[in-house]
Design goal:
Oligomer: single chain
Shape: globular
Largest sheet: 4 strands, antiparallel
Strand content: 15-25%
Number of helices: 6
Strand order of the largest sheet: 2-3-1-4
Amino acid sequence: MKAYSFTLVIDGDAGTDERINALFDAGCDDATFSHGSTISYADFDRSAGSLLEAVLSAIDAVESVNGLTVRRVDEEDVVTVKEIAERIGRSRQSVNQLIAGERGDGTFPQPLGRTRGHGRVWSWSEVAEWAGVGFDAETSAVLQAANGALALRRAGRSLGEDGLRRLITVATAA
């Protein structure tokens, strides 16, 4: 078995003595918890046969504790131009030229969106795959799929059974 490190973002306060004890009893003795009043984080180092098995078993363990729901697996995936430049060993000007299509083949990944004060942001997994650096396709696929499933579950509460069923059909279409 291999140890996998990842962080779960949790709705609810995991920091009470009662919940910490319940999490430990549920099998989360391989996690360190930090928390605020409405959101908590669980940093896991979980041994399992695969990353998917590690993430799913951690989600099950956390959610077995009353009042806690996993919101997402933190991918640390959102990056700025500055971070992209640092990670791929280029200047910010060079990265901006790649983004604008003034350099390279013009296929730089599209931004995820904008943030206040930071401009545009990109998915590091998409940029890393495009650049051919430090990209782990399996890890990216597992984390994106787990987050997609968690998002689908949250959306399903509002969309109803029929809407959820239709989305699952879309998600599993070939």
